[in-house]
Amino acid sequence: MCKLPMCWSIRSQPAFVITLAGQDQRVPTVITLFKKYANLNLRPFYGINGNLMYGSDEGYRLTPGERGLRESFTNLFQMAVRNNYNEMFVFEDDAIPHLNFTQLFKELPRECRKADVLLLGAMVTNKNKKQSPKDTCFRPDGTTYGAFAVRYKKSAFQPILNWLRETNIGPFDTVYRHLLYEGIDVRVAYPPFLAIMDVSHRSSVNKGRGIDRTSIKARAELHGWNLDEYPMSKIAV
């Protein structure tokens, strides 16, 4: 088997869509979309439903759903270490690829390609447009969230596992700041984002995010998503 850089193919990389048993209706559509637009062969990875395991917040700062997602990622990264993956792509079951994902990924700058963790999509919550990210392949800050579309390299697997095991102070997507502090390079593929998140359904992680709270158009304006660049009509809610 060829292991030279010239032999690397996105199609052959481990790629997963995290979902929950009984809530996986969107998975077939997401698999089809990423096969068509990203040339990725996604496989379902069934996570932990914190809302079933934990009846309430039980004094935790995290919601039951956030705790379940952390445990889901713990299981996923343990599997990646056992299988000795060099890297893996991980998507949540509401991720939507860019219509030109394949070409955009090929054209990513060197900084993005070298990153230990590369967010292929993100939610930037800075409402000050003048301070919104303009740099190509920027590093996430305290206003950058989302774990719905990420490429992780082997160099990040164990540090992420250590953080998950040793802390319980924040949702999973707060790990990026910790990794940067530890000298692990984290970048966001931008512009444009190679994937966005469908927020037209109820969140299994945060029950406070109901389907009527924020429209997808409002989210797009806040996060800098151009919906015309994504196959929005293909998503089954």
Features:
237 residues, alpha/beta, Spore Coat Polysaccharide Biosynthesis Protein SpsA, Chain A, 6-stranded mixed sheet, 8 helices, 10 strands, Glyco_trans_25, Glycosyl transferase family 25 domain-containing protein
Question: How does this model look, in words?
Answer:
- The protein has 237 residues and is of the alpha/beta class.
- The chain has a single domain, classed as Spore Coat Polysaccharide Biosynthesis Protein SpsA, Chain A (Alpha-Beta Complex), CATH 3.90.550.
- The protein is 31% helix and 15% strand.
- It contains 8 helices and 10 strands.
- The protein has helices spanning 27-38, 50-53, 64-82, 101-106, 110-114, 154-166, 175-181, 216-223, and strands at residues 15-19, 43-46, 87-92, 95-97, 117-119, 123-124, 144-145, 149-153, 186-188, 195-197.
- The strands form 3 sheets. The chain has a 6-stranded mixed beta sheet, with helices on both faces. A two-stranded antiparallel sheet has the order 4-10. It has a two-stranded antiparallel ribbon with strand order 6-7.
- β1, α1 (27-38) and β2 (43-46) form a beta-alpha-beta unit.
- α3 packs across α6 (154-166).
- This is Glycosyl transferase family 25 domain-containing protein.
- Residues 54-154 form the Glycosyl transferase family domain.
